Amino acid sequence: MSGYRGQLPQLDQRVFLTDSGLETTLIFHDGYDLPHFAAFGLLGDETGRERLDRYFREHAQVAADVGAGVVLESVTWRASPDWAELLGLSSDQLVEANRAAIDQLDGLRAGMGNDRTVVVSGCIGPRGDGYDGTARMDAHDAEEYHAVQARTFADSPADMVHAMTITYPDEAIGIVKAARHAGIPVAVSFTVETDGRLPDGTTLGDAIQRVDEATEGAAAYFGVNCAHPTHLDGALDGGAPWAPRLRGLRANASRKSHAELDEAETLDDGDPDELGREYVELRREMPDLTVLGGCCGTDVRHVRSIAAATTAEP
User: Fold this and answer.
1) What is the CATH number of domain 12-298?
2) Residue 34 has pLDDT above 90, yes or no
3) Where are the domains of the chain?
């Protein structure tokens, strides 16, 4: 079972790296067809499983090369009830898929030895489209919906739950409550538009504070994913009360908006070295940003550049 639930090591000031844009890597670089952007289906295929194993090992090696910790994020962003129904999976098959994804990462962690700090995280995605904030629930309904994954992860070797690409505060509140009731630490990463606000118009700071107020500060930390660093211009305030709560950053390689990315037929992978420098600039404003990786359009090259730039900081 998990060894870090009582004290997540990434809550110290040491840099932890994550993986990058798993789904865009698989689709655009490897040619996989991922219905509804669901990568967890590859776990049932020997070749797909081997590709996922290699993907995580590559990213873990980047962390090892710079002496950073690593968070391995399960391939379960789409492994929740509504998406499972679209994919033709039963509720039992959904639980099995979530558990298999954690078992994969726990097995990889065991093979890396005791000299590395490896956190296994169960990934929860939004109920709706991560680029569209129009599908809404209240916090109670969100808690009920996401409890399926939260309970499964709590009954597994996962160290924590991480909700990614969340578009409005009520869904985040429900996820935090579901994880708290299941007895597993939880982090929440919001996505923002090019103006630095959540898709529903909430500012990043207000979203963090609303979740903390509604859950008595139960989340371990917050993050941002699926947005370019330039989209955060004006959204960050290192002196704000909520600033220390923001620890995670998994940025897109592209500066394009969500609407533009949704219509794109080719991959915009940006400039890995430039992205690394932009992370350094953001960390000067927000020094508690220590859990760093990539999102859409990024791959191991980008994480390598982020690692080199941020661990070389004076």
Assistant:
1) 3.20.20.330
2) yes
3) 12-298
